[in-house]
Amino acid sequence: NSDKSLDYYDKVISSAPQSSAAKDAIQSVREIYVAKGDINAYFSYAERSGVECDLSLMTRDSLSFRAAQNIYLANRTTDAIPQLQGYLQSYPKGYYTDDALFCLSDCYLKCDSLDRAIEYMKILAQRPSNQYTVSVVEKLADVTFDNKMWGEAQVAYRRLYDEVDSADKRLMASTRYADATLHLSNDDATMAM
């Protein structure tokens, strides 16, 4: 019962804010708020509690993403979307930006919001290569190709060709790139190809 636990931890903290018991209690309070996905409530509580704890920008960045990620990993997709968007807005240069973009695009795919999923996949695909690049570019290429979004598919398959090492994947990417380009019916694009 997290609400009851918070009440008891609050009593410990209120009675002796500078004690080691209060420092242990504030850690438990933090974990409860992270699990609930309400990290801003924890930050407010920690600031007014009087207990010395780490509220640096790096800690806030990490805890904010972790709270959003917990909701995503619990498959609470519709609840995760505003949390992940909130993280990206609060920390535009955050340490977990790539992770948040990946989770957010996946949430939108699961919610059948194709336009929003593509929007966030494109943002992630335009970032420097990272652990998600190949899988996101491949998904972006396939989704746009399947939905006859030829311009986006052409760009994505061209990027995929550069990112993969496998000869089979490169052949598939170049073939789909050519198909998407021909579907554009654009002489300049065909000549560039």
Order of helices and strands: HHHHHHHHHHH
Total helical elements: 11
| Separation, N- and C-terminal Cα atoms | 61 Å
Q: Which runs of at least 5 residues are low in confidence (pLDDT < 50)?
A: none
C-alpha-based Rg, rounded: 22 Å
The average pLDDT is: 90
Shape: elongated
The total strand number stands at 0
For the biggest sheet, the summary is: none
Structural class, from secondary structure content?
A: mainly alpha
Name the helicity range: over 70%
How large is the share of residues in beta strands? Answer: under 5%
Oligomer: single chain
Short account of what is shown:
The protein is mainly alpha-helical. It contains 11 helices and no strands. Helix 4 (57-73) runs antiparallel to helix 5 (77-90), helix 5 (77-90) runs antiparallel to helix 6 (97-110) and helix 8 runs antiparallel to helix 9.
Provide an overview of this structure.
34% of the residues are buried. The mean pLDDT is 90. It contains eleven helices and no strands. Helix 1 packs antiparallel against helix 2 (20-36), helix 6 packs antiparallel against helix 7 and helix 8 packs antiparallel against helix 9 (150-163). The protein is mostly helical and 193 residues long.
